[in-house]
Write a structure and sequence with these properties.
2 copies of one chain form a homodimer. By secondary structure, chain A is of the alpha/beta class. Chain A has one domain: UDP-N-acetylmuramoyl-L-alanine:D-glutamate ligase (3-Layer(aba) Sandwich). The first copy, chain A, has 10 helices and 16 strands. In chain A, the strands form 2 sheets. In chain A, strands 1, 5, 6, 7, 10, 11, 12, 13, 14, 15 and 16 form an 11-stranded mixed beta sheet that branches. In chain A, strands 4-2-8-9 form a 4-stranded mixed beta sheet. Chains A and B meet through strand 3, helix 2, strand 8 and strand 9 of A and strand 3, helix 2, strand 8 and strand 9 of B. Strand 3 of chain A pairs parallel with strand 9 of chain B.
Chain lengths: 309, 309
């Protein structure tokens, strides 16, 4: 199975209002709710691609119960979340019906105690034994040490399980130094890590810092992958119109599934870009449009750049 | 016991953010959560005053479970909520830390089925038998007939239980026609009911429509009560600075407790205004400041207006 780790799981709530006006009262016309947090999004896409996936991380309180109930409805997905006393956070996306513009409100997440963090590490160690790959995704809840991902990367490497890291800031900086197989920063995260806004230079710097392969997601320009096997660019055929929520998580699912299927890098990248574009095109935020994915899969331009490697 | 009815219960969530900016992302610095809906607020104040209170209405889903768990912590309060399949709504108050300004997002509430509405009416009928007074509070969730409060007022009167109605719009219009003992509209609700923005005229009109007593809450100006025993004004000593959330519900609790204690109208009104002012002054929205209440209780000016009666 593929293991995805979401330390800061969330119940993602979407509200529709006519137009958000600060300091006034709004009647919400539509409420939707789904399990969230980057690793859970990755897991759903992997399950939809036919992979067996186990999700771990933390869940607690009534929001955590709600999240776990909703996960039981996801075929191919095994829930190995570790219970904690604090409540799982909510994120609220307030969408203006008229313009489609979104205002985001993110709760910080529960305070994790040292004992809960220790319990998670034990569970993680057990799960690694039957994992073909692991993705470490998203922000850290309060109480989890900033070097958490570095430790989880080292444990995966000690267990000979390929590990992908998708986070930001100091947890990314420390995690990269622990030598993960793949990091997938977006342009901002990559610039924050390396100090360079030039993806060609920045991906090289990120590899020097410890990452074996760096796959940078550059929005509409697709992916730039610097790997031990070469340097590639993969781009969708033209601009996709829609909601980019979850597009990065779908790219991670594409990279991981390609990894466990032993696909060469160009095919992994094509799959990641097609899934990402099909997520932007989907009517529901964070889902991917399967027809669009299948139509796009053979239309992704992947080019190798031997000179800049 | 005193019975309070909250058909559209809510989990009231308060978020603190630095300043709400539409179409951007916000990290919530503080999350608080409490059982909400006007009838539950009234019940909490009654319980704090030492009355035995039973709460009924609807609760459902994980939000409903959370609400009921939080109610078990309220001393003096008995939970007789009727379970429904739809989830209890949330209300979110986003408070700007800098200015204290609040942006409100209110979910619509669960769709109530005809069978659930019938189950509620049966429960209500049973509870009326041991009630000394009943308060019908707040909006109706989807699916409940617009004449709901009219029916509940008639049932209370048939059981000889004094009934107070605190709602708005068409449910208020129909409810008033069923001859409740007290209605407690605010200035806007009263104007909507009667077409008059002149409280002296509007309260007279509301009595003609069927209410035995009309107690209009006029914000900082206090209460105007038109009753079979006379016409009174009750006002706090000067402007109160603070959060008016729940001030109207505290006034209802003051009126109801005064009713079951057989206090004369001036004392009921003084208590209602003191509780209301002590709610504005409390640091937590919807709570009342007991010290402020006790200090204010003897300082409320109640004046009878014999000429305008």
């Amino acid at each position: 199975m593929i293991l995805t780790v979401t330390l800061n799981t969330a119940v993602d709530i979407t509200y529709r209002v006519r137009a958000l006006r600060p300091h006034s009262s709004h009647r919400v016309s539509e409420v939707t709710e789904r399990p969230g947090g980057k690793g859970l999004n990755v897991a759903r896409v992997l399950a939809a691609l036919g992979h067996r996936v186990t999700v771990t991380g933390f869940s607690g309180g009534v929001t955590g119960r709600s999240l776990r109930e909703q996960l039981t409805g996801c075929a191919g997905l095994v829930d190995a979340l570790v219970p904690v006393s604090g409540p799982t956070r909510r994120t609220i996306a307030v969408v203006d019906t008229a313009s489609g513009d979104t205002t985001q409100l993110n709760e910080p997440g529960p305070e994790i105690t040292p004992a809960e963090w220790a319990a998670f590490q034990e569970t993680y160690g057990h799960l690694l034994r039957s994992a073909s790959a692991v993705a470490l995704c998203g922000s850290l809840p309060p109480g989890v040490p900033v070097g958490a991902y570095a430790g989880l990367v080292r444990a995966a490497r000690a267990a000979a399980v390929p590990v992908l890291l998708d986070t930001s800031g100091e947890p990314l900086r420390r995690g990269v130094a622990a030598r993960p197989d793949i990091v997938k920063p977006n342009a901002d995260e990559l610039a924050e890590l390396t100090g360079s806004h030039e993806p060609l230079l920045a991906t090289r710097d990120a590899r020097r810092r410890g990452a074996h392969a760096v796959v940078a997601s550059l929005g509409a320009r697709g992916l730039l992958a610097r790997t031990p096997e070469g340097l590639w660019r993969a781009a969708p055929p033209g601009q996709m119109r829609g909601n980019p929520t979850g597009a990065g998580d779908s790219a991670v699912a594409g990279l991981l599934s390609g990894l466990v299927e032993n696909l060469p890098w160009p095919e992994r990248l094509a799959r990641a870009v097609a899934l990402s574009a099909a997520t932007v095109l989907a009517p529901v935020a964070g889902e991917f449009d399967r027809q669009a994915y299948e139509a796009l899969a053979n239309r992704i331009a992947v080019t190798e750049d031997a000179t800049a490697a």
